[in-house]
Specification:
extended
């Protein structure tokens, strides 16, 4: 089912010519605790 719902937004500050990894984790509708929906940037080095 498609609803066009925005689940998360993230502001990325980036460096050109470097790899960037984003992790999308959690359960939709959960805002606290270990299962909270979020987007995290992971430093590759």
């Amino acid at each position: 089912m498609t609803t066009n719902l925005v689940l998360a937004s993230f502001t990325l500050t980036y460096t050109r010519f470097h790899n960037h990894t984003l992790v999308i984790k959690g359960l939709t509708g959960i805002t606290t605790g270990t299962n909270a929906f979020s987007v995290i940037a992971v430093n590759p080095y």
